[in-house]
């Protein structure tokens, strides 16, 4: 008979649990707010799978990729924009509440065409991460991207998105300002946006905070990026009430690019330099540029050749792509 788990009653208690597992959580500081929020929400009955995956090797390839995806020197969105786009005009504010530095976007030039580019922006050190809220957008950040998406559609600009976030900011202020509605509105607009959309997961792709700019015609992932419904720490807190078991949770969640390509969630894995994108940022940017250009050119060619019904066909394919995710046969 399973033992009923006790409730985790305070952030202090969760923090103590997390500190005990610090040795295997070398780069987890950026997701601590999410860990605390997930744990503070209460506990659930233990799942059978929890006992099955407890013995997963913490030094597994999956956990290694998680650490690479969170590497502090890994190229960020603005690094890729700088290397891919000779001109970039950043746009600020959602025209409703304010500016959110955790997500950036604006008009850019990409291979001779005007595009709308946007993405999550983490910092490269503690000071920058505080300013960027560790890459966790608030509602105004998503409403800023919504404004840019609508502008892109109005003027016929393709959209390029860079995903790199542990998730949307889970604080009280975000809830008060309607973060769930902001994400949902983005998904609705993206599903019907009448221009090509390419999304690239360059680091962490966490939860709805990532999906809010990830509903695209083509979703690409860097070789050592991750994409998941929740962070490994949050999942471990739910299953075992112990964030130190994040490596086991990561292995069971199938969050790597290799897993997701097999599931049909993404279209392509972009190879990284040996050791990760942070080793040779220029080489990584060149690989991203080549992949984005190839997929964007393919969609543009179909639109040019498809006649009056081409946009409707593009939207139907986008819709079908996401409807198929999660379908399985027993």
Average pLDDT works out at: 84
Count of strand segments: 8
User: In which range does the helix fraction lie?
Assistant: 40-55%
Q: At CATH's second level, what is the architecture?
A: Alpha-Beta Complex
Oligomer: single chain
Largest sheet: 8 strands, mixed
Low-confidence stretches: 1-54
Rg, alpha carbons: 20 Å
What CATH calls the topology is 2-enoyl-CoA Hydratase, Chain A, domain 1
Overall SS class:
alpha/beta
End-to-end separation in angstroms reads: 29 Å
What percentage of amino acids are in beta strands? 5-15%
Write out the CATH superfamily name: 2-enoyl-CoA Hydratase, Chain A, domain 1
What string gives the helices and strands in order? HHHHHEEEHHEHHEHEEHHHEHH
Please identify the top-level CATH class.
Answer: Alpha Beta
Number of domains: 1
Can you give me a brief rundown of this structure?
The chain has 330 residues and is an alpha/beta fold. The chain has 15 helices and eight strands.
How would you characterize the overall build of this protein?
The protein has helices at 11-20, 32-40, 48-52, 61-69, 77-84, 126-131, 139-155, 172-176, 179-192, 207-211, 232-240, 246-253, 257-263, 281-305, 310-323; strands at 88-90, 103-110, 113-120, 159-165, 197-206, 218-222, 226-228, 268-270. It is α/β, with parallel strands linked by helices. The chain has one domain (77-323): 2-enoyl-CoA Hydratase, Chain A, domain 1, CATH 3.90.226.10. Strands 1, 2, 3, 4, 5, 6, 7 and 8 form an eight-stranded mixed sheet that branches. The longest helix has 25 residues, at 281-305. It is globular, with a radius of gyration of 20 Å. The protein starts with 10 loop residues before the first helix and ends in a 7-residue tail after the last helix. Residues 1-54 have low confidence and may be disordered.
């Amino acid at each position: 008979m399973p033992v009923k788990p006790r409730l985790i009653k305070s952030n202090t208690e969760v923090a103590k649990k997390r500190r005990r597992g610090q040795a295997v959580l070398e780069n987890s500081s950026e997701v601590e707010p999410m860990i605390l929020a997930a744990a503070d929400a209460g506990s659930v009955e233990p799942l059978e799978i929890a006992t099955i995956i407890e013995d997963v090797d913490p030094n597994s390839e999956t956990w290694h990729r998680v650490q690479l995806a969170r590497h502090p020197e890994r190229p960020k969105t603005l690094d890729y924009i700088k290397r891919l786009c000779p001109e970039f005009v950043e746009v600020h504010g959602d025209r409703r509440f304010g500016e959110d530095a955790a997500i950036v976007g604006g008009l850019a030039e990409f291979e001779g065409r005007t595009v709308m580019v946007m993405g999550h922006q983490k910092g490269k050190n503690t000071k920058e991460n505080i300013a960027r809220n560790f890459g966790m957008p608030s509602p105004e950040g998503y409403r800023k991207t919504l404004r840019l998406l609508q502008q892109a559609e109005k003027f016929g600009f393709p959209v390029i998105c860079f995903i790199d976030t542990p998730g949307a900011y889970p604080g009280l202020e975000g809830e008060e300002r309607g973060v769930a509605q902001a994400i949902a509105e983005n998904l609705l607009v993206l599903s019907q946006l009448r221009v090509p959309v390419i999304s690239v997961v360059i680091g962490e792709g966490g939860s709805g905070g990532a999906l809010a700019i990830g509903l695209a015609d083509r979703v690409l992932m860097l070789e050592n990026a991750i994409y998941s419904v929740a962070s490994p720490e949050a999942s471990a807190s739910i299953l075992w009430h112990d964030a130190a078991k994040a490596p086991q949770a990561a292995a069971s969640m199938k969050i790597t690019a290799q897993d997701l390509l097999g599931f049909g969630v993404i279209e392509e894995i972009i190879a990284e330099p040996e050791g990760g994108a942070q080793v040779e940022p220029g080489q990584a940017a060149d690989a991203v540029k080549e992949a984005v250009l190839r997929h964007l050119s393919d969609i543009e060619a179909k639109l040019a050749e498809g006649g009056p019904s081409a946009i409707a066909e593009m939207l139907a394919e986008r819709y079908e792509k996401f409807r198929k995710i999660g379908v399985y046969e027993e």
